[in-house]
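Journal club prep — side note

Before the paper discussion, L.F. wants everyone to see what a predicted structure for a comparable chain looks like in C-alpha cell form. Sequence:
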Amino acid sequence: MTPLLSVENLSIGFGKGEAVVRDVNFAVRPGETLALVGESGSGKTVTCRAVLRILPKTAQIRTGRVTLNGSSGGLVLNELNERRMRDVRGNLVSMIFQEPMRSLSPLHRIGNQVSEVLWLHRGASEKTAKKTVLETFERVGFPDPERAYSSYPFELSGGMRQRAMIAMAMVAKPELLIADEPTTALDVTTQAQVLGLIKDLQKETGMGLILVTHDLGVVANMAEQVVVMHKGRVMESGAAEPLLKAPAHPYTQQLFNAAPSIPAAPELAEPLPEDDLILEMKSVSKTYTMRAGSAWKPDVLIHACRGIDLKLPRGKTLAIVGESGSGKTTAARIALAAEPPDPGGEVWFRPDPSAAPLAVHKMTRAERTAFQREAQMVFQDPYSSLSPRMRILDAMTEPLEIHNIGSREERRDRAAEMLKQVGLNADMLQRFPHAFSGGQRQRLSIARAMMLDPRLIVCDEPTSALDVSVQEQILSLLEDIRDRMNLSYLFISHDLAVVARIADEVAVMRQGLVVEQAPPDTLFYNPKHPYTKALIAAQPTPDIERPINLKLVAQGAGAPDSWPEDFRFTDTVIPSLTELEPGHKVRCHV
C-alpha cells in the first residue's frame, strides 16, 4: 500500500548551528496511527511542524523529502509554494497543538474560530458550519456545546480549550491529522473519549494519524507503528506490539521504567491523624454568575463547588482528582484565599500545632500578608508562571522583597540554596526562563514557591505538561522536600497514577461535589462510585493487552442522572457523602 505520508532523510537546523533533527525516516498509511515518542527536546514537534512548513524563520529543512499521497495526488510538501500549502493546511492535513491558549485567538469566540475552517476550505454557510461545529463539540466532550460555541477562550478551562483545539482540527475531516500531545491537558475520562473519537473518525474516513506523545499508555491504546526519538535521531522504530512488549534500545527501556502506573497490589496505609490539621475546609461552596448570551435571557449561575468538607493533616498530601471543570482548582484557590467562599463556608489554617487556627475566609490585611508567607502555590503551566522579562534571580527574590525579608546578598544566597534543593545550579540565576526546558522551569516554580519557607504548598497539576522521565524526577523531588521539611501538600491532578504514588488521601470531584473520598489503597482497589470506576478504567497503561474500556468510561463519565439509582443526583436532589467503612466516604443514597 502506498503510504499517505512519507518522510525521508529529514534533517532540520536552526541558523548556522548543527542539525537538531538528523536523518529521520517514517511513513504513515491511510487509517494507520504512528506514534512519535520521546522526551521534551527530542525533535518530535519540530519534525511534525516541518511537514506543514510552520517552522520558525531561523529553521531550515536542510535535507530530506516530505511526500503526501492523498486525494490531490502526490505532493512533495517541502517543494510546494506558500499559496498551495495554504490549501493543504487545515484541509488535507490538520494539526492539534499542545498549548491551546497560544493557538486560539483571545478576541474571537470559540465557535467562530472553529467554523472558520469550514468557511475557508469547504465554503460552508454560517448556519451549516454552526450545525457541524456543535455536533463536533458534543463528540469531543463539551457538556454544553451551545455555551462553548459563544464563549471566548479565557472563559474556558485548560481542558475545555484543548477540546476546542481538537474540534478545530477534526471538523473538516482531514486526510492526515498530526496531534502534538493532544491529551496532556485533559483529564483521563475525556482523554479516553477523545482517543476513542479519533479512532472512530479514522474508521469513518481512513484518516492517518501522527500522534506525538510521551505517554506510553496512550501509545499502547492507539498506535500501530512507533518511532522513538532522542536528541533529534530515531533510536528505535517498528510495529507497536513487538516494540512495546520487548523494547530493544536502552532509551526506550528507560522511558518504560519511568512511566507512572497504579500499583498492581494495594499498600495498606494507616488512617490519617485528625488531631493535627494544617488546613480544614467546612461547607465550602462557590457560585459564579455567567452573563447570558442575550439581553433578554437571565444570567446563568455556575456552581463551581458545593458543600466541600476536606481535612489536611500536617506533613501529609491530600489529592483532589476530577475532570476539567469539576471544581478542583476553585477549591484550591479558596484554600489559598485567592477566592472567597460563598457565605457559610469556612477555611481554617493552623501554621503550628500550638497556634490558634486562622480563619482564612475572613482575614484582615495583616493576617493575609502573614498567611501568604505560610502558603504557596505551584502552577500547572511553568511557561506562564514565570515572567519572560525577569531573570531567574529577580523572579526568585521577588517574594522576599515583597515581604521585606533579608538583605540583597541574603536573598541571593537563599535563591542559590533553593536552586540546589531542586537540583539546579546557582550559576543559572542570571538566565531568563526561555533558556530552560519545561522540566527545569517546573523545578524553578517549585523553588520559587519554597523561597518563603512555607508550611503548605498547593500543587495545581504540577506534572501534567512534563514527559515521563522529568515527571518522575519532579515527583521524587516533591516527596523528598515534603519529608525533609515536613511540608503539607494539597495536590490537584487528573492523573491517577501520579496520585497513587504521592497522596495519603484522595478526594474525587465531579460537578463541584466530592463524590468519593478514601486513602489510595482503598480508592483504587475498592472503588464504589461509577465516576471513580470510570477514572480508573480510563487510565492508560503501557500494556497493549490492556486497552481502555470505553464502555465503562462512558457510563461513569456520563450525565449523573444516567448513573445507577444509588448514585444518581440532580440539581435539586443531591445524596449526602456517606461513610461506608472507616475512612471511605461515597456520595450515595443509603
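L.F.'s comment for the group: The chain has a mean pLDDT of 87. Keep this in mind when we get to the figures.
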